[in-house]
Design a protein that fits this description.
Blueprint (H helix, E strand, L loop, with lengths): L1 E5 L5 H4 E5 L15 E11 L1 H6 L17 E8 L11 E5 L8 E5 L3 E3 L6 H4 L3 H14 L7 E5 L4 H13 L2 E6 L2 H9 L4 E4 L4 H6 L4 E6 L6 H6 L1 E9 L12 H6 L3 E4 L3 H4 L2 H16 L7 E6 L3 H9 L6 E5 L7
Parallel strand pairs: 8-9, 8-11, 9-10, 11-12, 12-13, 14-15
Antiparallel strand pairs: 1-2, 3-4, 3-6, 3-15, 4-5, 5-7
Helix pairs in contact: 4-5, 4-11
Length: 331
């Protein structure tokens, strides 16, 4: 089968190559009971961890060479007896690794049926971003209808997902983006208000008495003003560090204003069926209501995986970047 491999640690252009590799076995480290399924991949998501892996700088760094990618959409190729999925089902799945290939393996526990409302490129944009955002906002951040949230990196994959979910749940949002072009993406995703990162986004939040929560995918030097943007008892929801800088927080700021600093690591949910089911049901409901519609910026063929990763590295992605693989499928 065709697959893209990481063969070095010199960045996307030098480290990603198209190769012929064996079809994987129907097995997965997170499926010890044999409930893994094989998927004929039609589309695979591209995310920032894959960029970091091409430099050897991500916390999960398999031995070289390896097939990167953690999210797919496609048709079930094979499933074990008694599985909730059957051959030919349209699905989206989190694979952890191995997604940038014509065939991928995933645990049934992190595979969902793909709604007819979504095509495969949208399906490959669903789990990592929307499940992360829902977990961050609803389960970890405890956001409720009528509350408010400031979103950093609001034109990225998790950012646009958070804005759409917030709109569906009745949460007011301030979207912080780096360029006017990205401001348009945030508005398309349903932001209540959009502010450029170089402008006074802290003042926009303080002007309404502070927001109930800040969702931060960027990290870096924004953290202090993010905390100042919160009302008393507010929540700083830490999702990632796309800036490459992990900030430090003086805990007296947390203590004096009764703030919560909340970490979000979505893969926690993948090993806890009740948590994962709650996220899946919440996201599926919003999909069926038409609230969730992933914003796909670019869909590129598998052979252009390096170009796709570079779009993320250079912060030129306005929404999700996806690889179109279109693996043959014979029901």
């Amino acid at each position: 089968m065709r697959a893209v491999q990481v063969v070095g640690h010199a960045g996307p252009a030098a480290s990603l190559v198209l190769a012929e590799t064996p079809i994987p076995a129907r097995a997965h480290p997170r499926a010890p009971d044999g409930d893994a399924i094989l998927i004929d991949v039609q589309a695979a998501g591209v995310s920032f961890p894959e960029v970091l892996q091409t430099y050897g700088r991500y916390q999960f760094q398999p031995d070289l060479p390896f097939v990167p990618g953690s999210e797919v959409a496609g048709y079930v190729r094979s499933a074990p007896h008694g599985s909730p999925f059957k051959v030919g089902d349209r699905v989206a799945a989190c694979t952890d690794i191995g997604a940038w290939a014509e065939v991928a393996s995933a645990p049934a526990s992190s595979t969902v049926r793909l709604s007819d409302r979504l095509n495969f490129t949208e399906g490959a944009s669903l789990l990592l971003n929307y499940h992360t955002a829902y977990f961050a906002m609803v389960l970890r951040g405890r956001l409720r209808r009528g509350e408010s949230m400031l979103v950093h990196g609001a034109a990225g994959g998790v950012g646009t997902a958070a804005l759409q979910i917030a709109a569906g749940l009745g949460i007011e949002t301030i979207a912080v983006v780096s360029t006017p072009e990205k401001a348009g993406v945030a508005r398309q995703a349903g932001a209540s208000q959009v502010v450029l990162a170089d402008d006074d986004w802290k003042g926009a939040a303080q002007g309404r008495g502070g927001v109930h929560a800040v969702l931060d995918t960027v990290g870096g030097d924004r953290v202090l003003d993010s905390m100042r943007s919160l009302r008393e008892g507010g929540r700083l929801i830490v999702v990632g560090f796309a800036s490459g800088e992990i900030p430090e927080v003086r805990l007296n700021r947390v203590l004096l204003r009764n703030l919560d600093v909340i970490g979000v690591e979505w893969t926690y949910a993948l090993t806890r069926p009740a948590v994962n089911q709650r996220i899946t049901e919440g996201v599926d409901l919003l999909v069926e209501k038409g609230v969730i519609k992933p914003l796909v910026h670019r869909a590129l063929p598998l052979k252009k995986a390096a170009e796709a990763a570079t779009l993320l590295e250079e912060r030129r992605a306005l929404g999700k970047v996806v690889l179109e693989i279109n693996a043959p499928h014979r029901p």
